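quick one, 91 residues, struct below
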Amino acid sequence: MTKEWPLWEVFIRGQHGLNHRHVGSLHAPDEAMAIRSARDVYTRRKEGVSIWVVPSDRIMASDAAPADADALETGKIYPHPSFDRDDHKED
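---
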């Protein structure tokens, strides 16, 4: 019986960015090999400054609900901020 390696999610921070973004998934036996494999697969042109690997089964996600679900449930509509340019003029 063959045991399949765990699935890892890969996040990379680019040279000019401040946040990591999800770039893909890969199978690896442990976190060290996942980092090495992610570096080989997803940063071929040295565009990544930092790599995160996370076991896929450890990622928690919210339900895919509309952004204004609270407003729909309660009937409350929240206004978006808007500014009148005339309010900021100095006399």
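The chain is about 20% helix and 25% strand.
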